[in-house]
Design brief:
Layout: H1 11-17, H2 20-30, H3 38-50, H4 57-64, H5 70-81, H6 84-97, H7 103-117
Helix pairs in contact: 1-3, 3-4, 3-5, 4-5, 5-7
């Protein structure tokens, strides 16, 4: 089946290791961060953010500022708001692009920002 994708390791197993070394090796070998498939890119960005793989942050923010679906946008922003190192950066990127999002998505992410600041 040409549309079937096999992942070398389950993404959940990668997350549980919290190893940026493994993340980096997988990214070098398979370039998940460059996937044109939104589902794959979304899952990979979340894995990398949870593992604190710095190199994915700009790609994740580029993804959520060009793909406005709340299904993708809100979880990635939430993950970044929970990462102290990139929280303010993610908030600034959201603020700079907030007019891009549908009103409901925008208001939900704004609530997430308030919760992250609390």
């Amino acid at each position: 089946d040409p549309f079937h994708v096999e992942f070398p390791l389950p993404f959940k197993a990668v997350v549980s290791t919290q190893s940026t070394g493994i993340i980096g090796q997988l990214e070098s070998a398979f370039n998940f961060g460059e996937s044109k498939n939104s589902e794959i890119l979304f899952a990979w960005c979340r894995v990398c953010i949870k593992a604190r793989y710095d190199k994915i942050v700009d790609r994740a923010l580029q993804f959520v500022t060009t793909q406005g679906r709340m299904k993708f946008v809100r979880p990635i922003f939430r993950d970044l708001f929970a990462w102290d190192k990139f929280k303010q950066y993610a908030i600034r990127v959201f603020e700079d692009n907030k007019d891009f999002y549908h009103n409901i998505c925008r208001s939900m992410v704004e609530k997430d920002i308030l919760a992250a600041k609390a």
